Amino acid sequence: MQLTVLPNQTVDADLSPTSARLAEALGRSLAGRVRFGHHDRQLYSTDASIYQVQPIGVVIPANVADMVRAVEICAEHNAAILPRGGGTSLAGQCTAHAVVLDASAGLLGISDIQAGAGGGSCWAEAGVALDELNNLLTRSGTGLFFPPDPSTTAQATIGGCIGNNAAGSRSVKYGRTVDSILAIDCATATGHRLTLGPGAGHADPIALKLADGVTRIVRAYEPLIRQRYPKTLRRNAGYALDLILKQLDAGITPHDLDLCPLLCGSEGTLAITLRAKCRLLPVPAAKGLALVSFASVDDAIAAVPGILTTSPSAVELIDDVVIEAALNNIECRGYVDAFPRLPGSARIEDLKAVLYIEYHEPSAQALTQKLAGVRAALPGAPVRDVTDAPGMANAWKLRKAGEPLLHALPGERKPLTFVEDNAVPPERLGEFVRRFRQIVEREGTRAAFWAHASVGVLHVRPMLDPHSPKDMEALKRIAVEVADLAKECGGVMSGEHGDGKVRGPLLERFYGPELMHAFAQVKALFDPKGLLNPGNIVAPGNVDSILQRTRTEPQPGQHPHVPHVETFYTYDDQDGFDHAVQACNGAGVCRKQSGGTMCPSYRATMDERHSTRGRGNALRLAITGQSSADGNGPAWSDPETIKTLDLCLSCKACKGECPSNVDIARLKAEFTAQRYRQGARPTISALATGHVRILNRLGSIMPGLANAIGKTRSARAVINAIMRLHPRRTLPPFSKSLYALWPRATRHARTPTPRVAIFADCFTTYNESHIGLAAQRVLEKLGYHTDLPGSNWAGGCCGRSVISVGLLPSAIAMIDTTIAQLRPLIEDDAVGAILFLEPSCLSAVRDDWLELKCQTPLALRQRLAEKSYLIEDFLDRHWDKHPNATLLPAVAARAQASNPYPVVLHAHCHQKALWGTGTSSRLLSRILGTNLRTPDTGCCGMAGSFGYDREKFDLSMAIGNLPNGGILPIARAAGAHETICATGTSCRHQIKDGAGRAALHPIQLIDQLLAD
Ligand SMILES: Cc1cc2nc3c(=O)[nH]c(=O)nc-3n(C[C@H](O)[C@H](O)[C@H](O)COP(=O)(O)OP(=O)(O)OC[C@H]3O[C@@H](n4cnc5c(N)ncnc54)[C@H](O)[C@@H]3O)c2cc1C
Ligand code: SF4
Ligand code: SF4
Fold first, then answer.
1. Handedness of CA 841, 845, 851, 854 (dihedral sign)
2. Pocket of ligand 3, candidates 331, 597, 615, 619: which has the most ligand atoms within 8 Å of its Cβ, to mutate?
3. How far apart are CA 737 and CA 876, in angstroms?
4. Does 649 sit in the ligand 3 pocket, CB within 6 Å?
5. 205, 312, 375, 936: which sits with the fewest CB atoms below 10 Å from its CB?
């Protein structure tokens, strides 16, 4: 059982006395959060690797001073320490039985930005994510950027990039993290704070002592360092003794020795980064990308040496396995269209490899020349230039999503991360790939290949089943053989992702015992008690340990698995329940803080527990029986898992934006439904919000009276108590039922005029019937007869509100009833479309209805889904083909000529996640032209009933008010002359409560324009 002992501290009741004492000391001394409960520790037991090691506890320091104090206390208690940033490491170096110090929530300061013509610098604290640093530099108009660009820039932190010496696609031009770090303000293993950098030995005796010691060690092993360190552009195996030797070769003395290069790539084993002084470079004036397609990976690799002579900023390779995975992903499938097709084939499937060749140039003219140079270097190859910012961003999104995308591929075999980081001289890349493929094929499997081809770093993920002992033995054989092959080709097995648990055991094979001894001496100098991230780089396990403490066998003999469960969803679109539960690979894309929507609750809390990854982990652990210390089968009622799921808004952003298609909204509904199946009782408020249609229907009988009663203090207090509403949240007013107001003549028209139907959702029908009527008017003017299926007392509901509270049997019953009502319209070819005004209802029909185990045959549900559209989308698709075909173009011409309609559009999360904002913005931009603004807003924070809940109201408002993408600051800043359009009823309500602005449904705006 988890207890809250101090306000900032949670512990397990059965914690060992030593851990309990440590937790208490930390809790008493720190302003930040101290979490020693089993559940919290489990959530930090994984990174993006195959490993799972439960930490001793978790500390989330509030600031730099808190971090230093945490280190001191751990040192006093002789407790091992694992510093952590985004936790996106691929080699397992961010998993350990240690106290995790998570810098990513509290160490977020950026200060002292110095900008000059040729570059500049700033100090950034350890938890700052790279994208956030660069966003700030852009916003503050410095014209500078911080260059390291691992694929994970959205979620990787300064501390983690230093820890891994991260390098990305553009390292051929800008180098690795080590090349962009000027100084590091750090804490030693005892909590002594010092600043390392050139000349540090003059300022601090401890820095001098360290520099002296390192110099001695490097001198002692100098011949071996020269002989055994690879000469590749990338090397991230062991400590960077080569970079220290380089300084000594240049005559630098210990007083001036820069120890930052040693910390870069040290995987948290030498010191804890608190802040770093970052070198900033001018943003290039012109950027462009040439996408080149090939019929084979070998052809693509053969093209690389020639391309390198043109001085690109990046040359990246992806293969057909990655392209196939992208085609399966909602967000990425559109980006694939940018790839040029092979001569004589329009089929994307025929592409076997694509090279991304990028240039950063001082002028547009220079860029044009460089792009022309690609065609000259590759005559006859299909090339497409991309020079617009959104086009380039989309292409890079696909490249960066490469690894996580593969996890969504169906089948038991997954693209496992263990030989993904080899670096060889680019001229030997072709040979390396051929021989690598032979090794993998000999083991009876295949692999996905992609590469930072420019620097010879090849990211390969062989497909293996982590649950199969045979495949895991193959993993070990492949790991050893490939490391040997890399060495033979003049390269190294850790190019940029580091050693961790997966390649640490191969270090001795690569460097020999003497250099391993040198590493141990360096470690002893910095961390004599061996407290910092023990077992990484120094004293790693033997080769067999590669297979130990993995997610599939966290303890010897323990094999957690997803049990057979009679689920409510089929999971056919996710390759089964088993796969859905284990789909999260930990890459942490859901920890991005700007752009898109995922994950609103993480953005507002900055808490791993409330990220998609936290929930994915919690669900996996609970369902595989690991959420309690005794590990007894699936724990559907585990209170900590329920708490972790509680702040999920079911916004579905993860379904659209998580590259591995993790769909927490669905899993949360399933988990809750399984809990009810085991005997748990839904709360009254869950039952009430789930059956909102009944309440709305009752309220709409006498809406004036119901609204007046709802405003009286006593009635509101009762409603608040029963439905757990927050007192500051306004209630949505009832309106007269849409059925009562619907023009009778058009109700069930049987005329030759084209027919459409409006889906009578619970809100349009009983709360906002004026929107339904606006839709009817617009459709009538366009020449349609519009049906309103159902009747006041027998109208159908999509089930969204019951789905979101996990009442899945009720949802299934509702769906079967509603679809029976809609059946005549579905089967009647004269009815052209069923139109939705509320995106969350359409998402139910197009998504949940197809996957829930309903009685209604799937074919009928599919037919309905194919016939169902958002009304704006339908109007756009048939723009000049409506019966009254000239009407919309004429309205557009008028609106744009008179220019009176500046409009800000905010789209509903479900819409953004499943079909994109374009399903509303395309129509509005046709009509309004440049008067339409579509800011990149995230979730509004309301999410159905979520924002009403008294315990979630503050979070709901915090989400709406997020500085990066919150709709509320945008709505407040919008001019009085600007119209705010929001597609969801919840969003409109949130904008009213949070920004005091009335927002329109897009169809109301069009209705107004038609009336003008
Ligand atoms: C899909 C995917 C793609 C990737 N692509 C790349 C790539 O292109 N290039 C690349 O280099 N890497 C890549 N990585 C690996 C990883 O994302 C990067 O190395 C990243 O920089 C790690 O940052 P992080 O904040 O997540 O670090 P974490 O994983 O949290 O930590 C990394 C290491 O640094 C240590 N550490 C963290 N914070 C501190 C601190 N404050 N003080 C001391 N030590 C600390 C940790 O103990 C750990 O050993 C990729 C990972 C994934 C999942
Ligand atoms: S939920 Fe998705 S985005 Fe987040 S870590 Fe897991 S796989 Fe990555
Ligand atoms: S549904 Fe939304 S809130 Fe829930 S985990 Fe996914 S992105 Fe986060």
1. positive
2. 615
3. 28
4. yes
5. 205
Ligand minimally distant from the alpha carbon of residue 155 = 1
Cβ pair 93, 501 in contact under 8 A? yes
662 lines ligand 3 (CB under 6 A): no
The closest residue, in CA terms, to atom 2 on ligand 3 is: 651
420 pocket-lining for ligand 1 (C-beta < 6 Å) = no
Q: What pLDDT, in 10s, does the model give residues 865-912?
A: 999 999 999 999 999 999 999 999 999 999 888 767 799 999 999 999
C-alpha 662 – ligand 2 centre gap (Å): 7
CB contact burial 219-251 (16+ within 10 A = b; e otherwise): eebeebbeebbbebbbbbbbbbbbbbbebbeee
- Model confidence at 745, pLDDT cuts 50, 70, 90, reads low
Q: Whose CA is nearest to atom 44 of ligand 1?
A: 268
Beta-bridge partners for 850: none
The atom of ligand 2 lying closest to the CA of 586 is 5
Categorize the per-residue pLDDT at 406 as very low, low, confident or very high, splitting at 50, 70 and 90.
Answer: confident
Average of per-residue pLDDT across 255-278: 98
| Residues contacting 998, CB < 8 A, separation 6+ | 980, 988, 991, 992
Q: Is the CB of 81 under 6 A from ligand 1?
A: no
Task: Please provide the average confidence, as pLDDT, over all residues in the chain.
Answer: 94
Q: How far is the CA of 93 from the centre of ligand 1 (A)?
A: 9
Evaluate if pTM is beyond 0.70: yes
The separation between CA 945 and the C-alpha centre of its own chain, rounded to angstroms, equals: 24
Task: Give kind and range of the element (H or E) at residue 42.
Answer: helix 38-43
What is the DSSP secondary-structure string of 859-902?
Answer: HHHHHHHHHEEEHHHHHHHTTTTSSSTTHHHHHHHHHHHH----
Higher pLDDT, 575 or 1000: 1000
Q: Beta partners for 185? A: 195, 275
Cβ atoms of 432 and 491 closer than 8 Å: yes
CA angle 715, 718, 724 (to 5 degrees): 130
Q: Whose CA is nearest to atom 39 of ligand 1?
A: 159
- The response to whether residue 653 sits with its C-beta less than 6 Å from ligand 3 reads yes
Ligand 1 atom closest to residue 274's alpha carbon, by position in its atom list: 41
Q: Is the pLDDT of residue 640 over 80?
A: yes
Are 538 and 607 contacting, i.e. CB atoms less than 8 angstroms apart?
Answer: no
Task: Express each pLDDT in 671-699 by its tens digit.
Answer: 999 999 999 999 999 999 999 999 999 99
- Termini Cα distance of the chain: 64
User: In this structure, how many other beta carbons lie within 10 angstroms of the beta carbon of residue 705?
Assistant: 11
**Paired tokens of 442:** 């000999």
Which residues touch 848 (CB under 8 Å, ≥6 apart)? Answer: 569, 666, 799, 800, 803, 811
> How many whole angstroms from 663 Cα to the centroid of ligand 2?
10
Closest CA to 974 of 905, 885, 921: 905
Helices assigned H by DSSP within 378-445: 389-400, 402-406, 429-442
Q: Whose CA is nearest to atom 6 of ligand 2?
A: 584
Q: Give burial (CB, 10 Å; 0-12/13-18/19+) of 975.
A: exposed
Predicted local distance difference test score (pLDDT) of residue 334: 81
For ligand 1, whether the C-beta of 404 sits within 6 Å is yes
- Report the separation in Å between the CA atom of 621 and the middle of ligand 2, taken as the mean of its atom positions: 15
Residue 840 has pLDDT above 70, yes or no: yes
What confidence tier does 329 reach under pLDDT thresholds 50, 70, 90?
confident
Q: How far is CA 142 from CA 48, 283, 403, 539, 642, in A?
A: 34, 9, 33, 45, 45
- The residue nearest atom 5 of ligand 3, judged by CA position, is 612
Alpha helices in 652-799 (DSSP H): 653-657, 664-677, 684-690, 692-699, 703-711, 713-723, 738-741, 744-747, 762-766, 769-781
